[in-house]
Specification:
Elements: E1 6-10, E2 23-29, E3 32-40, E4 47-55, H1 61-70, E5 75-77, E6 91-95, E7 100-103, E8 110-118, E9 123-126, E10 129-133, H2 141-144, E11 148-151, E12 154-161, E13 167-171, E14 175-180, H3 186-196, E15 202-219, E16 222-241, H4 250-263, H5 270-273, H6 275-278, H7 283-310
Parallel strand pairs: 10-16, 11-16
Antiparallel strand pairs: 1-4, 1-5, 2-3, 3-4, 6-15, 7-8, 8-14, 9-10, 11-12, 13-14, 15-16
Length: 311
């Protein structure tokens, strides 16, 4: 997946480097700044250039590609034409678990580690609707996606990347575990200090749902909608966050509405498909519902067309 803000030049495969040895430095070429990612090759102590990053607001793709080629780059990837993270189908969730700073016992530096997601734990999206993540939901994405570790989901504050070798993601019985050894930048050093002090204590992740299951049950005479996320694909980033943003449930609301139409079922609890009625005092929820209505209207028409074509 291309960077939205940088053209990327790869000089050496990241798998050839020692884990956690990467550093980023800034250089100048004919008055234009670019970043150099360096690390220690396995079995060596000297630092070796691994990749270049060219800010697209300073470098055009042709000039960046030419510079990459002149430095024996093995691959070049221009910045994405559009920012995929603005896709309206992207969701974000956060979890309050312990974020820790651990020393790297084999090399210099420190790791940020903790859980970006927890399995089999119900989260209320809005009254009458809750969600959980099934074990194995990330199994494919952590193998195939080039996931970033960002601060506050901001591409201007990258901390690590799976393809760079300084971000480790794995599933265990608890959830999605992450361990990142940030590049040695000022904002990364400040973040580690704030995590150690407990100022930053939560994580979030940005994703799209590839497979899900909706179920409905009665509790205290009210119908409850339960969404289980079975497969996350793609997984865009994991992010330590200063203050978790309001849970973006627009996509979940839209998929619930579409499921209702496709399965030809009606809700007996208006709060499930109209969260505004459950939060009448919140203007933010009212605005969110209006936005959701506008977004999933087209999906509803598409679903009706599919049902009609099958009939």
């Amino acid at each position: 997946m291309p960077y939205p803000e940088f053209h990327a030049c790869r000089l050496v495969q990241p798998s050839k480097f020692q884990d956690g040895s990467f550093r980023t430095v800034s250089r100048d070429h004919e008055g234009k700044k670019y970043n150099v990612i360096m690390g220690k090759l396995k079995g060596e102590d000297a630092m070796t250039e691994q990749a270049y990053r060219y800010p697209k607001d300073v470098w055009n793709a042709d000039d960046a590609r030419s510079h990459c080629t002149s430095h024996d780059g093995i691959s070049f990837e221009p910045a994405s034409e559009s920012d995929d993270t603005k896709n309206p189908n992207i969701e974000r969730r956060f979890v309050t678990t312990e974020l820790r700073i651990k020393p790297d016992e084999e090399n210099e530096g420190e790791y940020i580690e903790g859980y970006a997601a927890v399995f089999n734990s119900w989260t209320e999206l809005w009254p009458g609707c809750r969600e959980q993540i099934a074990p194995g939901a990330f199994s494919e994405s952590i193998k195939s996606d080039d996931v970033r570790c960002l601060f506050n989901h901001d591409f201007n504050y990258p901390l690590g990347r799976t393809s760079a070798g300084n971000l480790e993601l794995r599933e265990d019985e608890t959830g999605l575990y992450m361990r990142c050894k940030p590049t040695d930048t000022t904002f990364a050093r400040d973040l580690k200090i704030n995590i150690a002090a407990g100022v930053v204590s939560q994580q979030s992740f940005a994703f799209m749902v590839d497979d899900q299951r909706w179920e409905f049950k009665k509790e205290n005479g009210q119908e409850i909608a339960e969404r289980t996320i079975l497969k996350v694909k793609p997984l865009y980033d994991v992010s330590p966050v200063t203050f978790p943003a309001y849970e973006d449930t627009t996509v979940a609301l839209r998929t619930l509405q579409e499921y209702r139409i496709i399965s030809n079922t009606e809700s007996t609890n208006p709060e499930i498909t109209n969260p505004v009625s459950a939060n009448a005092n919140g203007n933010e929820n009212t605005d969110k519902s209006k936005l959701a209505d506008a977004i999933f209207d087209q999906k509803i028409r598409e679903a009706k067309a599919r049902i009609k074509s099958k009939g």
